[in-house]
Each structure stands twice: as C-alpha cells, then as structure tokens.
C-alpha cells in the first residue's frame, strides 16, 4: 500500500480534538470510497467551522464568543471545554435533563471556567448541586438567553472566551437547539 500525505493537521481549521477525530474519520471513509486525495485535501482546507458546533460567532473587545448549542450531552461540552487552554471561559449551560450524569462535566468546569451561567431546566438543578460548596467558580442562574448575555456583559473581560455549550436539551425555553444557538448569536450582536 502506497502512503500519501493528504494534509498537515495544522491545516485543519476546525477547533477541538473531537473535530480533528471527526476529520480523520471522514478522510478514512473518503479513501475507502475511492475519493482522490486532492479532493479530500481541498474540502478539508475549506471547512473553517460547522454551524452550531464550536462556531466562532463574534470577536469583540478581545473576547471570543462561541456557539456550541449542539452539545446536548455532558461529554460534548467536556470536549468543547478541552479545546481551550485558558481558565477564562464563561460557560452558558443547562436546560432539560436527558437522565445523564454531570459529575465529570462539573470537574471540567471547575478546572476551566471562571463563571457558569445556567439556563432554566432540570439539568441545571442537577448541575448546580456540584457548585454549592465552592468559591472557585461563580455560578449564576438566568431565565432566558437575553439575561444570560446581559450577565456575560457584566462579567466579561479581555481574553475571556464565552461559550454556549449546554450539555442539555433545549425543550424548556427554546423551540430546539438551533433556536437556542440562534438566540445566543442574536443576543451577542444586540447586547455586547
């Protein structure tokens, strides 16, 4: 079998280890299907983001705002948090519980976030319990996305990353996860 370099990892623009793994899986399937390496290379170079998946939606006053609304389970939010090295993340999370466990996510939040803003829902109630006896992270509960972004505006400082990565479903106050992401983007534009 002939080895051929398809693309250097630095040329894949998608953020996060999980997206790199997805790109490698896509390359493997493409090769199995007989797609030429030039076509694979060109396609991967063009993909800078996937809507609603660690999508950079704004960069204002040295702050990056990411929409990761499709992270509807704790593991997806953990992957998003691991993408960023700094402990300057303001995380917007919470919502409707799908009967999942949040203890690993809580540990990751404590290690990587400066603030946690929680949207309404039973997943929020479960997640908040992990932060009742800690001063390491500031936790805020809000009623909707507008309140969340208004809280962000008060908390945010240059160098922060604001990340919507809920780790929960959106049934309680949004039409669906895409409506949640849309509202995040609109409120960032309107308020920040």
Question: How would you describe this protein?
Answer:
The protein has helices spanning 17-32, 37-46, 74-83, 103-112, 122-128, 145-155, 177-191, and strands at 55-60, 63-67, 89-93, 113-118, 138-141, 161-164. By secondary structure, the chain is α/β, with parallel strands linked by helices. It has a six-stranded mixed beta sheet with strand order 1-2-6-3-4-5, with helices on both faces. Helix 4 (103-112) links the parallel strand 3 and strand 4 (113-118). The longest helix is centred in the N-terminal third of the chain and has 16 residues, at 17-32. It is elongated, with a radius of gyration of 18 Å. It starts with 16 loop residues before the first helix and ends with a helix. The relative contact order is 0.17.
Q: Could you write a compact summary of the structure shown?
A:
The chain has seven helices and six strands, in the order H-H-E-E-H-E-H-E-H-E-H-E-H.
Gyration radius, rounded: 18 Å
Give the overall average pLDDT.
Answer: 89
How many strand units?
6
Q: Report, as a whole number of angstroms, the end-to-end distance.
A: 54 Å
Helix and strand succession? HHEEHEHEHEHEH
Measured as a percent range, the helix fraction is: 40-55%
Low-confidence stretches: none
* Percent in strands: 15-25%
Shape, per Cα inertia axes: elongated
Total of DSSP H or I helical runs spanning 4+ residues = 7
Summarize the main sheet. 6 strands, mixed
Strand order of the largest sheet: 1-2-6-3-4-5
**By helix and strand content, what is the structural category?**
alpha/beta
